[in-house]
Design brief:
- The chain has 470 residues and is an alpha/beta fold.
- The protein folds into 2 domains: 2-136, Leucine Aminopeptidase, subunit E, domain 1 (3-Layer(aba) Sandwich), CATH 3.40.220; 161-469, Aminopeptidase (3-Layer(aba) Sandwich), CATH 3.40.630.10.
- The chain has helices at residues 70-81, 98-110, 139-160, 168-182, 191-197, 200-206, 260-275, 320-335, 349-354, 366-379, 413-422, 457-469, and strands at 2-6, 15-20, 45-49, 55-62, 89-92, 129-133, 185-189, 214-220, 230-240, 281-290, 302-303, 311-312, 339-344, 359-363, 383-385, 403-404, 431-435, 441-442, 451-452.
- The strands form 4 sheets. It has an 8-stranded mixed β-sheet with strand order 7-8-10-9-13-17-14-15, with helices on both faces. Strands 1-6-5-2-4-3 form a 6-stranded mixed β-sheet, covered by helices on one side.
- A hairpin with an 8-residue loop joins strand 18 and strand 19 (451-452).
- The longest helix is centred in the N-terminal third of the chain and has 22 residues, at 139-160.
- GO terms for molecular function: manganese ion binding; metalloaminopeptidase activity.
- Its cofactor is Mn(2+).
């Protein structure tokens, strides 16, 4: 997509006119039809013709409560009509807030995402030019918004990629190429380094796969000599069979998406570097493939971890928390970040609790929780607090190790997973866990099958911007 800022409307060109529900008086400026059969209901479209024969797309933005999701209205319009757009299309944005204009651009950019990467015959689409009509100079905002939309598309491509292409090593190569292009630092720790440094839990999860595990460390540090403002940790399970505690086959093909948290971390560090935010950020991705093999780790095994704590394996399908345990302990001990947030498609339990509407948020830091929750509601990437009560500590007690990786109970699965992670945070006062299993990947109006949503990039970048501004 190409975005240009203009101040004057060209009546000879196609134009997209926003219409809030019940507020249609302005339409006479763009079409000769006095009473179009249109009321501005959210994400509805009416295509008319202007006085010069140009197409006028009336786009419904709904009511005030719909403002947080107008990106989806523009994305849907562009997705449905872009095949007809050969000439520049004008977008009326006069009177929009910066947040609304950003959502317009993000939505339009997201409409360019093509899920059919591996099809032998691809539809050839040339770049579409959008001319943003606004009397204010919004050039910088357009550039930032397009960068956000493009990054969301990049991480969606990662999440939707098949596991035979997207190995842990592939994620490492992706991160190294990104670091080169966006001017930040990336180090990929391979098997020998992982063994030498003590990433025992990561190694255990990955030992049954022909694709060895890696730990990816990305660093964007513009403030030399200053502490790390925030550390991000992502679960990077590139395919999850469940291990010897094997999953049912029904939706097993979707387990390519079990690195959704890693994709967010990789995308956010890249985007923060591209936007040149004045904040020190470290990203750690612990990546492995949880496969079934004669060398796979077993239920009943006791493994070590980066922290030195021993773990009794009850369920090999509770593997994400194992790689996160090593990643969390490593980032805290090695880099001492002021805040730590991990993101993971961790449990089905959080989907049963919150459905597909919000991520589960676990933290004892009230300030972090309030700030992230506020941002989430403002941009429609919501989080919802769930408990870390000490009542659940005993659910992870083990007779033969320091703790076990699964409670075995059919209740509170998301919380007990978070409590497991908490044991490896060295009692960090500003740690947060986000379980994004219900919002990272699912049904979509833009694909026939379940696919990546792109959740988390805007949420984390806006949160990091709030840190840099303060």
């Amino acid at each position: 997509m190409i975005f240009k800022h203009i101040t004057q409307l060209n009546i000879h060109q196609d134009v997209i006119v926003p219409c809030r529900k019940g507020q249609l008086d302005h339409l006479s400026q763009y079409t000769t039809i006095k009473t179009p059969d249109f009321d501005g209901e959210f994400s509805t479209v009416q295509m008319l013709y202007g006085a010069e024969g140009n197409r006028v797309y009336l786009l419904g933005l709904g009511e005030e409560r719909d403002a947080v999701k107008i990106d989806d209205a523009y994305r849907k319009l562009s997705f449905d009509y872009k095949k007809y757009w050969k000439e520049p299309v004008q977008i009326i944005t006069e009177g929009f807030s910066d947040a609304e204009l950003r959502k317009v651009v993000i939505g339009l950019e997201m409409s360019a995402y093509n899920i059919g990467t591996f099809k032998s015959k691809k539809e050839q689409e040339g770049p579409i030019t959008f001319e943003i009509v606004n009397s204010q100079d919004v050039t910088a905002l357009l550039e930032e918004s397009q960068a956000i939309g493009a990054t969301i598309n990049r991480i969606k491509t990662l999440v939707d990629a098949p596991a035979n292409q997207k190995t842990p090593e592939f994620l490492g190569q992706w991160a190294q190429a990104s670091a080169h292009d966006a001017n930040y630092t990336c180090t990929v720790l391979h098997k020998k380094e992982l063994e030498a440094q003590g990433f025992h839990a990561v190694m255990a999860v990955g030992q049954g796969s022909v694709n060895p595990p890696v730990v990816i460390v990305t660093q964007y540090m513009p403030k030399e000599g200053a502490p790390v403002d925030i550390g991000l940790v992502g679960k990077g399970i590139t395919f999850d069979t469940g291990g010897l505690s094997i999953k049912p086959s029904t939706n097993l093909h979707y387990m390519k998406s079990d690195m959704g948290g890693a994709a967010v971390v990789l995308g956010v560090v890249e985007l923060v570097a591209k936007l040149k935010l004045n904040v020190n950020v470290i990203g750690v991705v612990a990546s492995a493939e949880n496969a079934v093999d004669s060398n796979s780790y077993r239920p009943g095994d006791v493994i070590n971890s980066y922290s030195g704590k021993t773990i009794e394996i009850i369920d090999t399908d509770a593997e994400g928390r194992l790689v996160l345990a090593d990643g969390l302990n490593y980032i805290i001990k090695e880099f001492h970040p002021n805040q730590v947030i991990d993101l993971a498609t961790l449990t089905g339990s959080v989907v049963q609790t919150l459905g597909y509407s919000a991520a589960g948020m676990f933290t004892n830091n009230t300030e972090m929780a309030q700030n992230l929750s506020k941002i989430g509601f403002e941009i429609n990437e919501r989080v919802w607090p769930l408990p870390l009560f000490a009542d659940f500590d005993s659910d992870l007690d083990s007779d033969i190790a320091d703790l076990r990786n699964f409670s075995g109970k059919p209740i509170a699965g998301a919380t007990t997973a978070a409590k497991f992670l908490e044991a490896f945070t060295e009692e960090h006062p500003a740690w947060m866990h986000l379980d994004i299993a219900g919002v990272s990947f699912g049904d979509s109006k833009y694909a026939k099958m379940k696919c990546a949503s792109g959740y988390g990039v805007q949420l984390m970048v806006d949160y990091i911007k709030s840190i840099s501004e303060n």
